[in-house]
Amino acid sequence: MPNLRPGPRRPISSASSSLTSSALLAAAALLCPTASSAIARPAAWLPSVTVDPARPRTAKPRPRPTASHEAHAPAPHATEAATPQKDPAPAVASRTLPAQAGFDRGLSASDSAGLVADLPGGASWGAGGVSSLPAINGFGADRLQVAINSMLISPACPNEMNPPLSFVNPAMIAKMRAYLGIGPVSVGGDYIGSRIDVTTAPPAFAATDGWIASTRVSSFYRSNGNAYGVDATATVANRDTSVTYSGGWVRSGNYKAGDGSTVKSTLYETQNHALSISKRSFGNLFTFQVGGQFIPYQGYVNQYMDMVYNRGLFANGRYEGTFDWGMIEASAFVHQIRHTMGFIAPDKVASMPMDTKGIDGGYAIKATLPVSGRDLLRVGNELALNRLDDWWSPVAGSMMMGPNSFLNINGGQRDRVGTFVEWERHWDRQWTSVVGLRNDIVRMNTGNVAGYNAMTSGADAAAFNAADRARTDVHLDGSALLRYEPDAISQYELGFARKTRSPNLYERYAWSTNAMAMQMIGWFGDGNGYVGNLDLKPEKAHTVSFTAGWHDPAQKIWDVKVTPYASYVQDYIDVDRCGTASCLASNPANLTANTGFVSLQFANHDATLVGVNVEGRLTVWDDLTYGHGQIRGLIGYVRGRRTDGVDLYHMMPVNAKLALDHHLGGWTNSVELQLVGSKDVVSQVHNELTTPSYALVNLRTGYEWQHVRLDLGVDNLFNRTYYLPLGGADLVDNKVVSMMGSSAAYGYAVKGPGRSLNARLSVSF
Ligand SMILES: [Cu+2]
């Protein structure tokens, strides 16, 4: 089997057949039963960001001074690594969360997007309890591309209530890898920030003859919100066949802030399931996966509506094959969403059904060719199709919301075909380069629309229907990365990338300037109304990023990385105040108001985002008596600004995470300090709210016996009252008297959760 991704100091070897390689793997797993896959071994220690690649650079890595944690872990069933070949993806400019990070996250929260806060520059926009929107280095929501088992999931809700990461529970995540800002073109197109790849239910094969089974079931409770749920994962496998289930269910009430007040409309219930069947033979790996989601309700404190129904169904297939000439990866998927919004009593009481139906499908095929001992060539092609219908049925007895259905997006289409070529060269022991070019063509269109009636939306609908709405965008992207490792302790990475994203269907085609209709559009959680713009151009980011990293030669004791970056985004899709007669009729001060909710229209503006991330870890003690103690830290700063001086919306203020992790045998402990600066720089055009600084302390401890593991944690130990910097506006807890009876009061940010005592019991067998 060709060694497709050589280590930085190893030349590409032409090497052995896949058969002997598999046999070696099996033998290794037999000799060392702890060499199991993540899915078969219960997570056993606390999260820390590992650097990818984390291979020791020395030929013979020194063993740790004491018996390692792994040696104390209960011997799992003998299963071995999933893929029969090496990961062919480029390793540059990426970070991978530890395999147990998702499981660990599940003790504190059920929101998978919150995991990105463990990545450099990571944060998340507050939304529903399981549907927050990830952001990295100031690029959030659609500007990041998230693939769940190779599936790309487009928004199927005008509030983006069903983002990709809401389709997995944290404990289902076996692997989360992020390509940061300057990711190679081979990982994807049609995004301008970072790309996140999530794997659930990966295959795990038996290392010995015969069938083996392994199961882990957990149940948990969190005092704040009275949340409880279960997670389960189970694998049945022999040498060449693997069947894995992964899933979970959780229910939570409204959470309380530190001051004891209930934050209304923060309740939720969700369940996600995935079942994989994998087969391998002689360097080929086939995986077929089906699954689905059901959310009966999810409250939104920063939207006017709540989610009252969300069902996802999906199927995907994946093939990886290793041949004499290289490697092929192919995947195909279909993912369907049925979504309904309404109001969850008693926090919101009204009637206005809003329905969405979305379907995504596509394929990706990639070949990795070792064209010489030093060169790898990757070529690939992908197709992503999206269909969307978004309609609001008439409300019986309502003059304004009837007698017809409001067609928000009628037969929306967004189809993309992408092609790339990428060249990775290992010049010598010190220098590696990855250079690629990519083209994506995005075609969008939508059918005729109509409002509830001619009075409220007739003119807008007529103008929209008369316009030519078909759009074709041609993206020309590229990336160039250079890695230099002069010695055993330093590593430098310099990258430049141009990335392009076309508008989503709502940004281009939401059409009504009626005030109520506009308030239904937008995933910004700011209480403002939004309308699309047929003239939007794709946004083009030009990002340069430099990482300087230092570590001890064995990469066991300490590790520091500093990454300054800068992006110039041409035609950044931001907003302008809406100046149409209809917008001004409902709010005469809409163009100038610097307080209150406003009506906005998507518009292109050039912008820059500049920032720096610092990551570090240090082993402070490591011996038989006191176990292993490690400090880890993460600092992030970003500043985003339009070239006309307007600041960008939802930029995470300066923030840091500092933690001390300890493990001794089956015992793990962690103290985490989270520091967030005040958010003073806010978007003037959004009338964005400022938030004060805060500090939180989180504790956790866990003990693992042979088959049982108990985790206990306290989040927000000192019960601090604080405001979420990216939480948007609280539209539910503060009301003013208005024409409608009562309306959301402007000026209140969303309070974060107060103290929560969390417990989880896991059984593995
Ligand atoms: Cu929705």
TrEMBL record:
GO biological process, one term: siderophore transmembrane transport
Subcellular location field: Cell outer membrane
Superkingdom of source: Bacteria
One GO CC term, this protein: cell outer membrane
UniProt xrefs under SUPFAM superfamilies: Porins
Biased composition, class Low complexity, residue ranges: 73-84
Region Disordered, residue ranges: 51-93
A Pfam cross-reference name: TonB_dep_Rec_b-barrel
GO molecular function, one term: siderophore uptake transmembrane transporter activity
Domain TonB-dependent receptor-like beta-barrel: 222-717
Signal peptide interval: 1-40
Keywords: Cell outer membrane, Membrane, Receptor, Signal, TonB box, Transmembrane, Transmembrane beta strand, Transport
PANTHER family associated with the record: OUTER MEMBRANE PROTEIN C, TONB-DEPENDENT OUTER MEMBRANE RECEPTOR
Protein name from the UniProt record: TonB-dependent receptor
Origin species: Bradyrhizobium oligotrophicum S58
